[in-house]
Amino acid sequence: MNECTNNSDKKNEVATFWEDLKSGHFASMIKESSKGNRLSNALEVCNIMKPFFARQDDIEKIYCIFLDANNKVIGIENMFSGSITTAAVYTREIVKRVLELKATAIILTHNHPSGSTTPSSEDLMITAKIGVALSSIDVVLHDHLIIGENYHSFAEQGWLAKAKQKYNEFMSSNKHIM
Fold first, then answer.
1. Count of domains in the chain?
2. Most Cβ neighbours (<10 Å): which of 56, 69, 102, 123?
3. Which of 40, 63, 112, 108 is nearest to 83 (CA)?
4. 103-138, pLDDT tens digit by residue?
5. What is the CATH number of the domain that holds 156?
6. What phi and psi, each to the nearest 5 degrees, are found at residue 127?
7. pTM
8. Residue 147 domain boundaries
């Protein structure tokens, strides 16, 4: 008899956990408890951000984690939401918010409701565009994570370093124009 009660209790606990996760309750707790903390790697960022994507998991959402000069979290904000396959991203709005918060770095995150974390050509293009815009105002794009069943880190894969190198080469080779 105790086994049935324990199993029933466990099922209720699991159901309550998933209800809380989908309600956004954990996301708001994480948002507040993250302020002032340093994020040290992509897995840590993924673990923090996963609950943000649990609510309305059929909508692509883009979040920015804004960091101060010591790479401590200033805030985590949902910048854009879209449909099941896409979300419009406005670089200007990210730059505007960076300036308002006086952030010196950001980590960009978004979900793929399909669960696949393979970057699309649009993901690559918007990452480059945001990286260039931020570089032009001396703000660092530390990473861009795509979160699904697992995660894809543009920094861990070396993509951000290559993009930054190309940007720096372009700027160096065009000094005479400026």
1. 1
2. 123
3. 112
4. 999 999 999 999 999 999 999 999 999 999 999 999
5. 3.40.140.10
6. -65, -45
7. 0.79
8. 2-177
